[in-house]
Amino acid sequence: MFRVKYKTYKIVLVCLLVFYMIPKVQAQCTAALKINEILVINEDNFIDDYGKRSPWIEIYNSASGTVNIAGCFLTNDINEPRKYMVPKGDILTKIKPRQHILFWADNITTHGTFHLNFTLNPDEANFIALFDSDGKTLIDSVTIPVGQRANISYGLVEDGWDQKRLEKEIKLNSSYKSGNKLWVYYEKVTPNSNNRILDANSKIDNLEKNDNGGVGMTLTAMSVVFGGLIVLYLIFKVVGRVAILLSTRRTILASGITKEELKNIAQPSGEIFAAIAMAIYEATEMHDEENTIITIKNTARNYSPWNSKIYMLRETPSKK
User: What sequence ranges are listed for the domain LTD (predicted)?
Assistant: First the structure.
């Protein structure tokens, strides 16, 4: 009886621990969400499903798994963290790894899940914060400085970065050009896309600059081809030597002689092999004494094929 009760208590304890850990797992997932890019003045830029241009806020998922933003809160007032709760039950609130989601700050919640109940004021600094589903845990926040220009967004220098990630990149890569600015302005706004769009290939640009005539590329290509041929030659040479060594070893094992004795055995020359071949030919080849004479001999047959015409003809009658 005691053992049964002990097992029951153990199962209940495990279930409680599981239910206790679920909110923490959810919190760890939502912690990967980042406010990535904001456009305050939208005069000639991205439009929503209703054909209207409004300020928008882009959220980025920096995690390696899908994160559901449903139940989290977006606000522009630190004193009111639960200003807008992202509705639950919408499949579009699930943000795939390294992907984005866009919210419209148009103060028209009747337009759907992604339309907030507040807007952004271009004449003053705008504070934006993302809170977890408990309404207390701050996930991310940013203050957009006053003086924003139309159709120019304010976003992270790289998707999902923070100040530590920026400082680490600067230490590892001295040629990083962003300096110490985590937030920068983008004249080419990128809603629902990566902040930094690579419209040029640095390797190709460097090649055009340093090897405009293509001489270096030609020499490189030829070096690769001839280098490959040399490598193949060495491989075949090594394989041939290994095959000879293995053949010699098998001969030694089969005949029972030593390696020194095998070396003393004279190998037949090519002339000997040619003489042997000619002797075999002369012994097996059937021909006349003179190859230019054709000999025709009658062949006696001891059978009469049923379809042979010579056995079907009658003899010519004698007139005598």
Answer: 23-150
